[in-house]
């Protein structure tokens, strides 16, 4: 989840809208992604334009948005190593749009398009990589050879951004608000629960799972009875022993029930005979 602590809510809403638009209608040769840990880091994969030394390469870059964005421009960095006059060895991008020509009304789409155009038409006059700038002015073929070499080695296709990353980030405000509401409810529930008495660890459980083992059910009933009378650990132990005793089979139980019925019938006959003898 993005923290977004560095950016005010109104800026996040605007960025979310722009990112959703970029995801649904991406500029040619540009794919945007968002860092899940920090919404102020925006990543983009830029395809090398055809007809340039960067053709067939995929260059990953990032825009770092400061806490006062959009009043101050973002900082741009190439994460993929590239041989280019306007990109320093540490990846920093030098382009007027991100410096003196910055305007708060410029959106992310405009910035990314300017960076891609920089691969088509470099500006050696404001070079951060002096070697590349000098080579471009004096010997374009040598410059192009170096750029193609870097592209072939470093600008291989990158793993795709996580699917749905942008759509998840565009709803980050709602998610954060929902989480805050849930947190408040949890805190109230915890406070209420703290006042309720906790069950004694020695008290018997009256809950028996549906379809549970018959041994478990007998153990519960016997333990409740014994504990209610004596409340001693001996009674609980006896209940446990009873619960572990083997259960009688259905045939044995039927035989016992039949024997009891027979005894009752015999007793009725005896009572009838006694009454007859009294009459005589």
Automatic annotation (TrEMBL):
Q: Where is the active site?
A: 94
Basic and acidic residues: which segments have biased composition?
Answer: 254-269
Keywords of the record: ATP-binding, Nucleotide-binding, Transferase, Ubl conjugation pathway
Any GO molecular function: ATP binding
Q: Where is the UBC core domain?
A: 10-156
Region (Disordered): which ranges? 252-280
Q: Name the EC number(s).
A: 2.3.2.23
Q: What class of enzyme is it?
A: transferase
What segments bear the compositional bias annotation Basic residues?
270-280
Record-stated family: Belongs to the ubiquitin-conjugating enzyme family.
Q: What is this protein called?
A: E2 ubiquitin-conjugating enzyme
What organism does this protein naturally occur in? Tripterygium wilfordii (Thunder God vine)
